[in-house]
Design brief:
By secondary structure, this protein is an alpha+beta fold. Strands 1-2-3-7-6 form a five-stranded mixed β-barrel. The protein has one helix and seven strands.
Length: about 140
């Protein structure tokens, strides 16, 4: 019984409870697409560069002239990591978006992405760390 009164035991239990509640909120957060927010980046995937646990998704707008002549057509770089949530949306109804994964991404797909810190840096192309990425699937007639 002496051990149960130890501050180390209680601090460990509190830390476990905090971690469990954080993971529970993250799991709940992951189940709902970010429909009510305005995305910080959208476009068509030009390329995906993946390294261990991280990826850079380069986006462009089809038919848009390059902002700077002689420079890549990519206008946004979306960085993802293990905390980024992925969704798949069919048509224009974001509320019907279903959970997806990084492996569902492919060049030529349209996506919308939301920044973790709600900003896009002042570089060209604009770069940000994504909290959510929605793959917008074309509607079939």
């Amino acid at each position: 019984m002496q051990r149960a009164k130890s501050p180390k035991v209680w601090l460990t239990l509190v830390a476990i409870l905090i971690l469990a509640s954080f993971l529970g909120v993250s799991a709940w957060r992951n189940s709902s697409p970010p429909c009510d927010q305005m995305g910080q980046g959208h476009g068509v995937i030009d390329s995906i560069e993946q390294t261990f646990g991280f990826a850079q998704i380069k986006l462009y707008t089809p038919g848009a002239p390059p902002i700077h002549p002689g420079i890549s057509r990519d206008h946004t770089i979306v960085r993802t990591d293990w905390t980024t949530h992925f969704f798949r949306q069919h048509g224009t109804n974001c509320r019907s978006a279903q959970p997806a994964s990084f492996s569902d991404l492919a060049e030529g797909q349209s996506i919308a992405a939301w920044s973790k810190d709600l900003r896009n840096n002042n570089s060209y192309p604009g770069t940000f760390n994504a909290l959510d990425v929605v793959i917008i699937m074309p509607t079939t007639q």
